[in-house]
Amino acid sequence: MIEGKKNGYVIGVLGALIGGLIASLPWILMYVYGDMILSLLALPIALGAWKGYQLFKGKEDKKLPYIVAVISLLCVTVATLIIIPLLLGVENGWTFSLDTLESLYNFSDFKTAIMKDYAISVLFTFMGIGGILGKIKESVDDE
Description:
The protein is mainly α. It is 76% helix and 0% strand.
C-alpha cells in the first residue's frame, strides 16, 4: 500500500479507470494486430484497476471490491465495443471516428462477432475480478 494522505472515491475511480485501461492494452493490441482474441489477457484488467485506485490513493473500504468490479467491466466494455472496432477500422483504412464505429456496427457479421467476443471477454474479466476480490478484501480488512 502506498502511504500518504488518502483521497476520496472520485480520484480513486479515475486512477482505477486509467489502471484498467492500461492493463487492457496488451489485450487490445493482440486483438487488433494479432488477429485473435486472447481472453486470458482480460484477466489482469481488474488488477490494473485496483493498482490504479491505490496509486491515486482512493479511499479504501468495503466499497472497493465493487468499485474495482464495475471499473473492470467498464474497461472491458469500452475496449471491446469502442476502442477495438475503431482500431480495426483504422487498420482497414477507415478514419478514427464515430462514423466509422457506426458503419462497422451496421455490418451484422461484425456486430455478431464483436458481441460474441464481448461475452467471452466479460466471462474472463469476471474470472480476473474473482481472483482479485479476495486480495482486495484482505487489504481492506487490514486497514
